[in-house]
Amino acid sequence: TRRSSDLGIKVKNMVLFKNCFLFTLILFITFSGISVNAESEIPEIETEPLYVSDNSFYFGVFTAETKNEAKNGIFQNVTDETVFYASIQNSGKDRCITLKGYLNYESVPLHILDSKYDQEKISVKDGTNIVIPFKIDAEIRPSANYKFLISMFIGVDLHESDTNFGTTMYGTSYDYFIQNQPENIVDLDLISEKPLHYIPFSPDRMAFMINTDFSADTDIIKVPPAELTLKRGEEFSLAYRIGNAYPKAKSCLLLVTMDYQQASINNADYLCIDTRDNYISYGEIKLTAPDQEGKYEICALLVPDPKTPVPFVPLEYSRRFTLTVT
Question: Which alpha helices (H) appear in the chain, and where do they start and end?
Fold first, then answer.
């Protein structure tokens, strides 16, 4: 009788285990199904016509509603559930890229909705023509307007200290206006600071540069060195010069990235700088080197009149250089 009782207990345990297993399996299938269904709700979008020629790249952003419309840099009635599409075309050679987003000029994550591209560095082969769906991972209120700056950096697997390309053509950035309300302005708490100097500007000079040249009494704009070597955690200064990059702009917003992450400049996420026609706005910014040794690319871009919609053109870059931390 005891053996029969033990056998009965084992049978009951087996039944209980089986039921628990089946219940767990049902839960797994159910929630897996929700995930799959959520992915399948993303509408399929055809790629754009080819805009690239030999050894070039293209980057643009659209929604399902604006894909076939003329590009004017404005998205209307946007929420945090709006699906955007990054259109990327590449020709001439394989490239490595990264996408970075900023809402009202503060870095925000981009929720990539296609697992093939959900990575920090994305490899794009020669001949690539793709669209990458994503959402802005931040609160977007229907009662407010916003600026949405998005950058595609290329050559993120390379360092200027090794390549010496000496170019500003290392990516494309756009400053989109998200218009959820009728007024053509974004409520940003921006105060344009005066530069240290206004220098008379020769039109043939470069329009925008950050470098290590602190000669404030000349309109000659020197290119930065390919490499700047610093100690871990060391504070350092750079000079900025803003010429006629945007002739009609009353102010420009300066944003700097370090290894493609938004860098703190003068203890702020960005600087808004007063500009004048036919003058170079000269000033200096302070940054801090990372705490880990390695090579970090320094990039900078310029946004005209950040509170209002601007003509839809790619933003100006300064020359990129490498910060080597020892």
Answer: 2-40, 160-163
DSSP string, 157-210: T--HHHH----S-SEEEEEEEEESSSSS-------PBPPSEEEE--TTS-SEEE
For residue 131, what are the β-bridge partners?
87
Q: Mean pLDDT per 10-residue run, the chain (326 residues)?
A: 47 48 44 43 83 92 91 94 97 97 98 96 97 97 97 97 93 96 92 90 78 84 93 97 86 97 96 91 96 98 92 93 98
* CA proximity to 84, closest of 116, 60, 119, 48: 60
State which H helix or E strand residue 152 sits in. strand 146-154
For tokens 């995930």, the residue is 35
Q: Can you give the pLDDT at residue 232?
A: 98
pLDDT for 181 equals: 96
Q: State which amino acid sits at residue 14.
A: M
Instruction: Return the sign of the alpha-carbon dihedral for residues 192, 197, 199, 205.
Output: negative
Q: Which CA distances in Å does 31 have to 17, 34, 152, 212?
A: 21, 5, 34, 55
The residue to which tokens 């979008």 are assigned: 45
Which three-class secondary structure state does DSSP give residue 285? strand
Fill in the DSSP letter of residue 118: -
Residue type, 308: T
CA angle, 248 as apex, 245 and 251 as ends, to 5°? 75
In whole angstroms, give the CA distance from residue 47 to residue 130: 6
Rounded Cα distance between 238 and 77, Å, is 40
Those residues with Cβ within 8 angstroms of residue 90's Cβ, 6 or more apart along the chain or in another chain: 52, 57, 58, 124, 125, 126, 127, 128, 129
pTM of the model: 0.86
